[in-house]
Specification:
Strand order of the largest sheet: 3-9-5-6-8
Strand content: over 45%
Shape: elongated
Radius of gyration: 16 Å
Distance between the termini: 9 Å
């Protein structure tokens, strides 16, 4: 969707739950250099932006849900989240977690947290390789966040 003020400078967190466990609450953040945002620890998700983050943690197996939340309390911290894409860096398997909703205390339902369910977008393994891939203790997840182009 295309919504005004769709971005946020609130702190954004994710929790990934899967068939083999959970990736505990992690903040999505990037160092933006030495400016007022770096001093306050703020990272801005701009309207119509796509940002990618890498998180390392336990292999959770097949993702079952992704909780996304932010700590914004003012109306200008309202955030229109289009979707989150997750890639398992070990297997290459990808999932889409559509949202297309506001996370805001001031808009729609007043919620700053959403629990998203995945759509698989690419098979992880060629069927000729193996039915059950090896389970790794740690993996790197690439999380790509798309903020809606909302006006």
């Amino acid at each position: 969707g295309d919504k005004k003020g769709g971005g946020t400078n609130a702190r954004v967190f994710v929790v990934l739950a899967g068939s083999h466990g959970k990736l505990s609450k992690r903040r999505l953040w990037k160092n933006q250099g030495f400016d007022e945002n770096s001093l306050t620890g703020r990272f801005t998700f701009h309207r119509a932006s796509v940002e990618t983050f890498e998180l390392q943690g336990p292999d959770v197996g097949e993702p079952l849900s992704l909780k996304v939340e932010h700590d914004g309390i003012t109306q200008d911290q309202s955030w229109f989240l289009d979707e989150i894409r997750l890639t398992n860096g070990e297997t290459g398997k990808r999932w889409r977690f559509p949202c297309r909703r506001w996370l805001s205390l001031h808009l729609v339902d007043g919620q700053t947290s959403r629990s998203l369910t995945p759509n698989v977008t690419q098979p992880a393994w060629d069927a000729t390789q193996t039915i059950n891939p090896p389970h790794k203790a740690k993996t790197i997840y690439q999380i790509t966040v798309t903020t809606g182009d909302v006006r």
